[in-house]
Amino acid sequence: MTGVLAELARTFALLSLVSIGGVNALLPEIHRQVVDIHGWMTDAAFASAFAIANASPGPNVIFVSLIGWQVAGLSGLLVATFALLIPSSVLACFAGRVLTRWSHHPAVAVLRDALIPVALGMMLASGLSMMRTVDRDAVTVLISLATTVFVYTTRRNPLWALASGAIVNVAALHIF
Amino acid sequence: MQHDSSATPRRNIGKAELFLGFLKIGLLGFGGVAPWARHIIVEERRWLTDREFAEILGIGQVLPGPNTINAAVIIGDRNQGIVGVLLCLLGQMAMPLVIVTALAVVYERVAAIPEVGAALIGAAAASAGLVLGTALKMIRNIRPTPLSYVIVAVGFAAIGLLRWPLVPVVLVLVPTAIAATWWERRK
Q1: With an 8 Å Cβ cutoff, is A155 touching chain B?
Q2: pTM over 0.95
């Protein structure tokens, strides 16, 4: 049991340090480690864990937490979660401090301004790739586009749009 | 880019405020946390402006680790040091961890019900729109310079349209964006 925990810790701590773009960018490598190399989960269990994590709120990290949970219960969940979070968070904390300390340096100001359009482009791209994954018919495409307009034009709580999307798609199931 | 007062420190956000804010972000964060983080941090609590939020998200994006986790670390550290980091992370992770394990327990029974599947897909479709709408709103509020628009468009095209792998795109795009920003500023 402790062998599995140590292996979980080692696997996800290493992944943490290369996880530029977050857990979704790591998906193929996580699959290789969890299913192919360690044989902790079957392909089907891996896929349903991914579906469950996507249906839950919160950062994608919880997919890795869930893998830990399926492999070794509560201790597995904690070990996998901490292993994935600690190395990258220590780095982020350090980077944040360096940038704050040198915030008046012209080079840092240029760097921060330069990262803004990069972040915006990535966010647009992730919206499109989510649409591509999820939207299978005209109804879901319309839900996505209507939500885009709703969020762009109002400051209301986006939960209204999510609830409407769920209701509309259930209604569509019964109409068509 | 025109510069606002983003570098000047404002009042520190309290420990309880940080924890509760991120607890809400975690709890609401369906289909990606970034739009919810922006909704709470920029619109609801006004901790940061759109520009400051995008800066922190940008830093979080190019570092390893999920961008919103990195953003939580940086915001927590700036306001309350290491304790703030722990509170922001715990806040963001607590409810999602409880919910995901609870869902895992009932999943096999519930997943077979067609209405449940349809509701989840409908909410996921709306989440995609939430991410798109949030990105567009941030672009409108930040008003990038012409060259910044080009960087946004190239990043979107490479990752979103052409589906190139993220790491090499970031490795090329960040230096390009730095060069473009530097060139625009020296005029």
Answers
A1: yes
A2: no
